[in-house]
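Tutorial, part two.
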Amino acid sequence: MNAIALPLIALIAFAGYTLSVMLQAEQSLIDFGISLISRPDTAQVVIDLYLLATLAGIWMYRDARKRGLSTLSVVPYLLITAVFVSVGPLLYLVVRGVQDRKRLAAATRQI
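Running the prediction step on this input gives:
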């Protein structure tokens, strides 16, 4: 349960906050992104954020392959990460935790 609880709480809180902000925004997500990269100080933050997103994407890909999942199974998480950065890895952690729980329950029933 702990493997699911923290990422699930973070996912719900952050996705809810993101949705709230997007509904109230006076400019599109693309316009906002362009304004962020137009100045060196905010561009540095965006670059740093996407470097971390890239590392998270590499980790999700390697973790999925280690678990015997196909490369295609990670594509939705990578796409979500490309747009909403933190939401992709958080969702991956939640789904992975649920899958692990199901595998453990199935293995326990077979014993």
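The CA atoms of residues 36 and 42 lie 5 Å apart. In part three we will examine how such features are distributed along the chain.
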